[in-house]
Design a protein that fits this description.
31% of the residues lie in helices and 26% in strands. By secondary structure, it is α/β, with parallel strands linked by helices. It folds into 2 domains: 168 residues, Peroxisomal Thiolase, Chain A, domain 1 (3-Layer(aba) Sandwich), CATH 3.40.47.10; 138 residues, Peroxisomal Thiolase, Chain A, domain 1 (3-Layer(aba) Sandwich), CATH 3.40.47.10. Strands 6-5-7-8-2-15 form a 6-stranded mixed sheet, with helices on both faces. A 5-stranded mixed sheet has the order 1-9-14-13-12, with helices on both faces. A hairpin with a 3-residue loop joins β13 and β14. The longest helix is centred in the last third of the chain and has 22 residues. The chain binds oxa(dethia)-CoA. The site of oxa(dethia)-CoA has 21 residues, from α2, α6, α7 and β13.
């Protein structure tokens, strides 16, 4: 499904924030209690370390810190809408987003959660920017926040090596399509036939993933989605200055880039340091790219995700030059 823009009014990225827990868990740390090794994990996934939150941390704590940082980055104190994309809400009911809004002093703002697993941030960006384009609200915080450490089986080497905790957020305001930072279009899709490939089985506590089957589907789905959104805004694949893909596996990112014909220096990859943070992955990668000066004002960006559901999605935007702010839990 593509959302076709109808007017010049659109959402513009005006702030970017992150929050990562302090504790770093290396591959060697995991290899002490799992039948695995740093060499296997690094070679097969590109991951060297990930952040794991202290017990008692809530997804809303990470989300609020990242959202507060995004507000600071945007030099704003108010916002009309808070959308939290997460697989690990604080509780089944109510949603996490109103609590995040309250923590930021945004009582009265519209606030809801969005569940699309690893594609959650792109889905939430699409929803919030469409609401801004429609005039329903003038500003929004879009947050991806995850505590996969609460749903990963520490004894399962096929998932425990991959996932990490963290949160990232963007602040959006109303602007026009020619503004640097303009969010131009989206491509979203799903295939519920693959719902068992990444799932917390009903009545169970832990996530199960059939990694190889996900991998095989992720590469063509991400490539096709990225191409669709690029085409919809009039870009050739080669026009993409930075491809910011969901950080699930460095080999997936490289395969997608190869299919798109993009050189490796246009592929944003921070998976080595943070692992797979699901809905938080893309805003964290975006912030890393901005810190590393890998993206500059006016660059053409494609964000592409794939994950549980199955779901996938892409967004095309230009870059505003926004400097990220890094929040903390302390
Ligand atoms: O974020 C949501 C979307 N998720 C994804 O996109 C995940 C996509 N999938 C992947 O990234 C990869 O499939 C994994 C990293 C999960 C697994 O890598 P793989 O190259 O697909 O490995 P595999 O599952 O095919 O396993 C290959 C071998 C097996 O041994 P045998 O049967 O060949 O003897 C596994 O038992 O590697 C073994 N293995 C491991 N060995 C050491 C699986 N996990 C590990 C491990 N350490 N952690």
């Amino acid at each position: 499904m593509r959302t076709q823009p109808t007017n010049d009014r659109c959402a513009v990225v005006t702030g970017l924030g992150t929050c990562l827990p302090d504790r770093i868990v290396t591959n060697d740390d995991l290899a002490r209690h799992l039948d695995t090794s740093h060499a296997w994990i690094h070679e097969r996934t590109g991951i060297a370390r990930r952040r794991i939150a202290a017990p008692g941390t809530a997804t809303s704590d990470l989300a609020a810190a990242a959202a507060r940082a995004a507000l600071t980055s945007a030099e704003r104190t108010a916002c009309d809408l808070v959308v939290v994309a997460t697989t690990t809400p604080d509780q089944a009911c109510p949603a996490t987003a109103p609590r995040v809004a309250s923590a930021l002093g945004l009582t009265g703002a519209a606030a809801f959660d969005l569940a699309a697993v690893c594609s959650g941030f792109v889905y939430a960006l699409s929803v919030a920017s469409s609401m801004i384009s429609a005039g329903t609200c003038r500003s929004a915080l879009v947050v991806g926040a995850e505590l996969y450490s609460t749903i990963v089986d520490p004894g399962d080497r096929s998932t425990a090596i991959i996932f990490g905790d963290g949160a990232g957020a963007v602040h959006l305001e109303q602007g026009s399509r020619s503004d640097p930072g303009a969010v131009l279009d989206h491509d979203l899709g799903s295939d519920g036939d693959g719902r068992d490939l990444i799932a917390v089985p009903r009545g169970e506590r832990y996530l199960r993933m059939r990694g190889r089957e996900v991998y095989v589907q992720a590469v063509p789905a991400m490539t096709d989605s990225a191409l669709r959104v690029a085409k919809s805004v009039g870009w050739q694949a080669g026009d993409i200055d930075a491809f910011v893909g969901h950080q699930a596996n460095i080999r997936i990112l490289r395969s997608v880039a190869k299919r798109l014909g993009l050189p490796e220096d246009r592929v944003v990859a921070n998976i080595e340091d943070v692992g797979n943070t699901a809905a938080a992955s893309i805003p964290l990668a975006l912030a890393w790219a901005a810190d590393q000066h890998r993206i500059k004002r006016g660059d053409r960006l494609v964000l592409t995700a794939f994950g549980g559901g199955l779901t996938w999605g892409s967004s095309a935007l230009t870059w505003s030059g926004t400097r990220p702010v890094h929040g903390s839990l302390r």
